[in-house]
Amino acid sequence: MSSPVPVYKLQAFPRHEPNALFYMTRLEKLVQEFKGIDKPHSHTFYLVMWIIKGSGTHTIDFKTYAIAPHQLYFLTPGQVHSWQLSADVEGFNLFFEANFFRSRFPNRLFQYPFFHSHQHQPLLEVASSAALFQDLFRYAWQEYDSQQPNRPEVFLSFVHLILETANRLYTERQTETDTNLFDRIRQYEELLEQQFLTVREVASYAEQMHLTPNYLNAICKKVLGKTASQLLHERLVIEAQRLLTHTAQSVKEIGFRLGFEDPSYFVRFFKKHTHQTPAEFRQSAA
């Protein structure tokens, strides 16, 4: 039977300072010290992972990526991930609470395409800028480890530099689409993340965004090639997969938790989007 997926707070990690809103560690040290960190888990904080060397796989919300040098991974609070890393892996893990970043940049986190998105890949390959990111992470690590005056302020500056540099590369690789349309997609995804369990009508989201449902649909199709309803349904499916994999709740209980009062309708909905029944998916994920 599935066991609940652990949800880690910053305080769970070795040598974490009691009141700090940020944490940094060498990846190889984390793997060595934190038993079970390779198993499926989620966090209450944001994570940026920099791979220097090594191989393996990194699974984030049921999508698996091949690990290679000069990769950046970005995780949002609540996302479930696990990994299988080679013995020679090296890198850095940088964690921070939302309030740490928002203290200086109140709205910026939701503007990064690699956070809070099930439509944008949480991975950035940066081979062409590897030396730059290596320097940024090395300087951030020195600052984290130094205990110098105003350390939180300086460390936040490094976090900001890393995210803004990554954002430039990430957006350069996007298609030539109006940035205002991307902003609308991000706004829609933010609303979905907050309300997908209770609000099932695209028209309700469009109204909150001061758009017509047809225009919201047109934006989604132009930017992502999907309808607004598809984005809503994909978010529901991800949550269903998380619950089927990481809880012992019955299919009926999960369907009810996701707002499906009719269990048979939940089974049909899930099968339509995954080509498996919930029971078949649970068995294959075991």
Automatic annotation (TrEMBL):
Coiled coil: none
Pfam families in UniProt: AraC_binding, HTH_18
Residue span(s) of domain HTH araC/xylS-type: 186-284
UniProtKB keywords: DNA-binding, Transcription, Transcription regulation
Domain of life, per lineage: Bacteria
Residue ranges crossing the lipid bilayer per the database entry: none
Keyword flag DNA-binding: yes
Gene Ontology molecular function: DNA-binding transcription factor activity; sequence-specific DNA binding
Name of the protein: AraC family transcriptional regulator
Organism annotation: Larkinella rosea
